[in-house]
Design brief:
Layout lengths: L1 H17 L3 E6 L2 H14 L4 E4 L7 E3 L12 E7 L6 H9 L1 E11 L11 H6 L12 H10 L5 E5 L4 E4 L24 H5 L4 H9 L8 E7 L5 H14 L3 E5 L7 H13 L3 E8 L2 E6 L4 E4 L2 H5 L5 E4 L7 H7 L5 E7 L9 H13 L1 E7 L10 H10 L8 H4 L8 E5 L1 H6 L1 H14 L5 H9 L3 E8 L2 E12 L3 H8 L8 H9 L9 E10 L8 H13 L18 E7 L2 H9 L3 E9 L6 E8 L2 H22 L8 H9 L11 H12 L8 H14 L4 H12 L4 H8 L4 H19 L2 H8 L3
Parallel strand pairs: 1-5, 1-6, 2-3, 2-4, 4-5, 8-14, 8-15, 9-12, 9-13, 13-14, 19-20
Antiparallel strand pairs: 6-7, 10-11, 11-12, 16-17, 17-18, 18-19, 20-22, 21-22
Helix pairs in contact: 1-2, 3-13, 5-13, 7-8, 8-9, 21-23, 23-26, 24-28, 24-29, 25-26, 26-28, 27-28
């Protein structure tokens, strides 16, 4: 262990002298690696936290709790990579190491590691694939970065040899200048004296706007830039003025920096009355004059109210929860990571930003200068390269004039993609930019999962549009029986829903390709690239097509293409225009998007056609009841678009009495409320056929299908009174009586014409 101890001491000394971090890879056998980690921490005088299923050194966190590290700082974090190498966990561990500290990876021998399957790989081996089908492309690339980057030491713990010292011999650094406060600040000068960079000062100054109702401040930064500390300084200033500041985050550990800075600042201001820290869910700083800074977990915070809300680690929270938090206080500060690994990915940026802008007057602040470690920290440089945290699509001028007709359809091979760094960054950058759930784990999934394939359109060699495809279904009879009995089968989203929820025992037999992600360069959107790509995928996997050999699951006959996503009117229209039919609307909202999910299918074979037909028919039969119950709060435009995207008709099995009631309600004194059923059947038929204008369709959805009260319907849809709304409903049914009515209906209508 002498080599380990000496390397750890040298790395720590250089890290401490430069206020940077260093990475030490301890490669070899498991038990030897654990002993080496303990020896390294002891030699470098480090207190460590370890991410491991086993006791390695210091405080242990299970890898599935790596999110607890968000917002924390430690001298050393040890990541046990023997049981599982999770990309998200690597990122979270690195983000928690402070300047002068060490990040330790305990790994199998590096040459053998890419071919060694582990617990994370097991999550990639979704049925019908097995663990041996998982590739090691991501791991080979990871090992390559560890052997190539500055500041990364590698020790073979079995041989006791140092492969790389990790020392960089950096030039001396100049001391930074003091930060001047802003002109005429509203917050006390002492608050600004605590700022360590000009960026942090500007962030605190922006938070002065939180004294005004209807405002929001968004603090964006990579990790280690002091955004949480800036929020804490502002919280202290607001509490000193007598305001009630409510802080929330995934857990108190994530918001600890906010409270530490707030407590220090209140003490400096001479305004700290009490510091009560009782449980992980309840922390409170009391200020003289009645102000306070307190913590609540998000579910409790939603039920609370305050003068100012501070949301730390915003990107780790589901979009629906972020929207609910907007109701808590008249002003709010959101601190969020730009290039993050928060689990919810880019939900804040991609999904929540537009909604925030419509609800509040927003001030954006970006913090670029590191605080917790020096600029150009080699561990940060390595991390961004290894996990592609800063992946970007091709620069806009390269694709600005691109047209779908000039694009080339490509099957992107994972190994070839990983060997071409620019193209890999373009592909992953498109996915990151366009989709709120893309995270580092998805990089490994894209490169290694046997059920995943990537297709793209390129122009002049640059990727303009990409689609991430997942093979689903084709499951053996025993697995299908287990799924029907309630067992969850990973990686088979559509077959699982159609089988277990919708009770189709044969839904998992056909083979499908689910479009997990589709993304088009922002400079080339709305030109048809997405549709061209979907058509090319359909042509490649059509049952009658000749497909080239050599790719993932190319030998399979594909029966259908499918998709599942948070439904919006625009997305429903896009997928319907590309031949996808609605087969299901979820009855609960998605945690991340806050929307109901739509499942849609595009058949490619006779078997796929049969699957799509029977589930579209089943959807039409049951959707009326669901809209009056679980989906009674769904956006009427989502309902309209979902119904318009399903083939077939709703049979009009109305009795003579029911036709007389509808006709008299449309043309005479009949009342909808006495028997809503026939009105619902006609409403469904009309929406499927597109027989009415937009406003009439919305009225039928809200009042007839979702059974909302007259007062609520009139208010939401802009009618001046309930009576006006009732008259509008009768008027909407006149063309339906004329179009679909029987002789009995027409006779009844003629009474009042």
């Amino acid at each position: 262990m002498d080599a380990v101890r000496a390397t750890a001491r040298d790395l720590r000394a250089e890290a401490d002298a430069t206020d940077e971090r260093r990475l030490l890879v301890l490669a070899g056998g498991r038990e030897t690696g654990y002993r080496a980690a303990r020896a390294a921490c002891e030699a470098a005088d480090l207190t460590a936290v370890s991410l491991s299923e086993r006791d390695v050194v210091g405080e242990r966190l299970s890898p599935d709790r790596a999110g607890d590290l968000l917002g924390e700082t430690h001298d050393c974090v040890v990541v046990d990579c023997h049981d599982a190498c999770r990309p998200n966990a690597l990122g979270r561990a690195a983000g928690a190491v402070d300047g002068g500290g060490l990040l330790l990876f305990v790994t199998p021998p590096l040459d053998a590691w890419p071919a060694t399957r582990d617990g994370f790989d097991e999550t990639l081996a979704v049925p019908p694939f097995e663990l041996d089908d998982v590739d090691g492309v991501f791991r080979r690339r990871l090992v390559g970065t560890l052997r190539a980057h500055r500041g990364v030491a590698v020790v073979d713990v079995d041989a006791g040899t140092v492969e790389r010292s990790g020392l960089t011999d950096p030039a001396p650094r100049r001391l930074s200048s003091p930060v001047a406060p802003p002109d005429s600040p509203a917050f006390p000068r002492a608050v600004y004296d605590a700022c360590l960079t000009a960026d942090q000062r500007d962030a605190v100054a922006a938070c002065e706007r939180l004294r005004e109702s209807g405002t929001a401040v968004v603090l964006e930064a990579d990790r280690g830039r002091g955004k949480s500390s800036a929020a804490g300084l502002a919280a202290a200033a607001l509490a000193a003025e007598g305001r009630d500041v409510l802080v929330t985050a995934p857990g108190y550990r994530n918001a600890a920096a906010v409270f530490d800075r707030a407590a220090e600042s209140l003490e400096t201001l001479g305004a700290l009355a009490a510091d009560r820290r009782e449980t992980d869910a309840a922390h409170e700083l009391l200020a003289d004059g009645g102000g306070r800074v307190r913590f609540r977990k998000p579910p409790e915070a939603v039920e609370d109210d305050a003068d100012v809300l501070v949301v730390d680690e915003s990107a780790a929270l589901p979009v629906g929860l972020l929207e609910a938090l907007l109701e808590v206080a008249p002003s709010a500060c959101f601190a969020t990571t730009v290039h993050g690994y928060e689990g919810a990915g880019r939900g804040f940026d991609v999904r929540f930003r537009d909604r925030l802008a419509t609800a509040r007057d927003v001030t954006d602040v970006s913090l670029g200068d590191p605080i917790r470690y020096a600029a150009a920290d080699p561990v940060e440089v390595w991390l961004f390269r290894a996990l592609l945290l800063d992946a970007r699509p091709a620069v806009e001028p390269l694709v600005a004039d691109a047209r779908p007709g000039a694009a080339t359809y490509e099957r992107l091979d994972p190994a070839e993609l990983a060997a071409d760094e620019n193209r890999l960054r373009e592909a992953f950058g498109l996915l990151v930019e366009a989709h709120y759930r893309t995270e580092p784990d998805d990089l490994a999934r894209m490169l290694d999962a046997p059920n995943i394939a990537l297709r793209a359109l390129s122009v002049d060699g640059h990727l303009v549009s990409v689609a991430l495809l997942a093979r689903e279904g084709g499951l053996p009879a025993e697995t299908r029986r287990e799924m029907y009995g309630g067992a969850r089968v990973r990686g088979n989203m559509l077959p699982d829903v159609l089988t277990s929820q919708l009770r189709d025992p044969e839904a998992a037999a056909p083979v499908g390709l689910r479009v997990m992600r589709i993304a088009t360069h922002r400079a080339a959107r709305s030109r048809g690239f997405g549709s061209r790509l979907l058509d090319a995928v359909a042509a490649e996997f059509d049952a009658d097509a000749d497909r080239p050999a050599g790719g993932r699951f190319d030998a399979d006959a594909v029966d259908y293409l499918g998709v599942g996503y948070g439904a919006t009117p625009g997305l429903l229209e896009f997928w319907a225009d590309n031949g996808y039919r609605t087969v299901h609307l979820s009855t609960t909202r998605n945690d991340e998007s806050g929307e109901y999910s739509a499942l849609m299918v595009r058949p490619l074979s006779a078997v796929g056609e049969d699957l799509a037909d029977r589930h579209a028919a089943w959807f039409r039969r049951r959707v009326g009841s669901v809209l009056a119950d679980a989906l009674d709060d769904a956006d009427p435009d989502v309902v309209r678009a979902a119904l318009a995207a399903t083939d077939g008709i709703v049979p009009l099995d109305l009795t003579d009495a029911e036709w007389r009631l509808v006709a008299s309600a449309a043309y005479g004194p009949g009342l909808y409320d006495v028997a809503p059923r026939p009105f619902r059947r006609l409403a469904l038929r009309a929406l499927l056929d597109g027989a009415l204008d937009d406003d009439e369709e919305r009225l039928l959805v809200r009042k007839v299908l979702q059974a909302r009260p007259w007062s609520e319907t009139a208010d939401e849809l802009g009618y001046v009174s309930e009576r006006t709304c009732m008259r509008a409903l009768g008027d909407a049914y006149r063309p339906l009586v004329d179009r679909y009515g029987t002789a009995v209906a027409r006779e009844e209508a003629d009474r009042y014409r």
